[in-house]
Known about the structure:
Nonspecific Lipid-transfer Protein, Chain A, 28% helix, six-stranded mixed sheet
Amino acid sequence: MKIVIINGSLPHYDHGLSRVVSAIASTLVELGMELDEMNLGFTQVPYFDGMRAQAMDDMVTRIRASSGVIFACTAQLFAPSAMLQTFLEFLECGDYRDVLFEKHCLLAMVSKSGGERSALEYLARTICYLGGFESGRIGLQEIHARNIQDEADAPAGSVREIIERESEDFYRAIRQNRRYIMPMDGVPATAPAILAPAPLPVPVYADANPIVQPFQPPILPPVQQQPLQQSPLPQQPVYQEAPPAPAAFAHTPAPPPAPPTNDVASKLNLEAFTERQEQDIKELTALFSQKYVQPSESQYAGPSLSQYQPVPQQHQSPLPQAGFQLPPSGYHQATPPQPKVKTVKQITQSLPHYYQPQMAAGMTAVIQLSITGAEAFDGYLTIVDSECDYTDGIAENPEITIIADSGTWSDVLKGKHTAQKAFMIGGLKVRGNFVLLTKFDTLFKM
Length: 446
């Protein structure tokens, strides 16, 4: 895959941008990318007048053949450099309008003393308007850009290490063919024109100055007001105190209700119903007493119940006493054996047992493994044709160095992730020949 770098700064006035571009380029080259750099300071691009230019044709052709674009320039007055702004103005021309459509773009901006944030925002909105994908930002000031270390193995948290991380994310976005839903301020590059709603018809008057009569409400007949009639309030009932009872009946209780007459009892046949209930109860009692009778000791066919005596329970001490022996019929439940769990280093040391020599015909390589985290260790694999050996320590000149956390490396060894997928999600860091990482899963079959 090819990546185009568009550098919109002059060599003698770049505020350290060349160091940023060098760090990005070295990271992408290690990942197997092909770079094509175009410096706008050495290209005779005229001012944009709404027409295409011959100087732009070659650059547009190279961008169309690429998989991604890196825009690198300096920030002047909170905006990108004038050379890069002129270049972007030409991309709005009809012949070049689709050159950035769905292309992943990495933005790198360096300012002398501030303003890179506003310049990055301006550049991001312009690329989004032209249909490109913003896949990363790097904004620095001159004091930080000029202090970027030249060596590849930068310490964690340094400026170079941050630039390498952004470059690796840009690489992953291209390899995974990510798609974004970008907010737009205008019509996208290849989107059809949006039809505006038809205007409302304008009324036409015969007279240039029509006389509009003022609105007059209709005249309604007067409403006769009638006086409100108040309904009288309901009168409260008047309660009168009952006369006192005679003294002879003051404490006499109420008589019980009179029993039914002979005519009613004869019709309902209450006496016959009561006798039937008593007879049913006696029959049910006799039935249940015969069914659930308890057998006596004399009726028990087996041995006498008195022969069975309760056995007292003996107290068992938690610790065995001296001279204590288990009876021959006693059994002990053995503790099940616990499975042995191999460490990440032990699994890594056993990689030569899973080596597939048929996949490495004529190969000679040294793979350095630097594992960090809970189980940190260093070791390297030496592959010579059909032989593979593991050695603890650090190799002198390895073809590839794999840096990973012990948890991520354990997932790779157990087959939960391939080595290449672990790199795509940011779990692995690679230095050297990236092609060996793609062959790692075929060389070792776990």
